[in-house]
């Protein structure tokens, strides 16, 4: 059985249960999930400074995953914090939740919209779409004007607003696919698809299934990110001097 580590890059276990439920809803039987979070760190990554602070601890966890024989690792943040750095540091596939969601969305329709919590998140989503080569497919980024703490405190209102913004993305922005930046509760994605007629991508499902694919390819074909160019690793001999 292949092991995939899912790392929540925050210093709280508050998201571990919902991640585990999302994984179990779509997990193939030959894969096993290990869900981890940081021992110390911010409670969320809404701010760039918080994202920079967690890259070191996340790197250590991904290195631990590789040492333990994992076949892939997922960074459970839609901003894909540290994903490109991590690909320099390890050989196993490293999956970003945002990147996997957008890549999947691009296969389900011509243009997609991303529903986020706050307007502040929009530039990072647009920049990551550009890095992934998805900018021409991005119809819009729509915010529901709720922070992570607010969404945790009132999930009913959060997902009501998600539904409203998803409907607007399809009707006004020309989106054929809607991507949510947060993991949805069971049944929400299916209900929204039936309501809108458009495809709906849950980032937990997208990241996990992408990780399963990459874990299989890594185990059977040793396929992972390139060591030439962007993800070329720091030479070991030079690295040890610092």
What fraction, in percent, of the residue positions are helical? 40-55%
What kind of sheet is the major sheet? 4 strands, parallel
Radius of gyration: 17 Å
SS field, number of helical segments: 10
Overall 3D form = globular
Distance between the termini: 37 Å
Counting DSSP E segments of at least 2 residues, the number of strands comes to 8
Average pLDDT level: 95
What strand line-up does the widest sheet have? 2-1-3-4
- Look at the helices and sheets and give the structural class: alpha/beta
Uncertain spans: none
Amount of beta strand? 15-25%
User: Order of helices and strands, N to C?
Assistant: EHEHEHEHEHEHHEHEHH
Comma- or semicolon-separated keywords:
single chain; 242 residues; alpha/beta; 4-stranded parallel β-sheet; 10 helices; 8 strands; 48% helix
Write the layout of secondary structure elements.
Elements: E1 2-8, H1 16-26, E2 31-37, H2 48-67, E3 72-75, H3 83-89, E4 94-96, H4 97-108, E5 112-116, H5 122-131, E6 138-143, H6 148-153, H7 155-172, E7 177-180, H8 188-196, E8 199-201, H9 203-221, H10 236-239
Parallel strand pairs: 1-2, 1-3, 3-4, 5-6, 5-7, 7-8
Helix pairs in contact: 1-9, 4-9
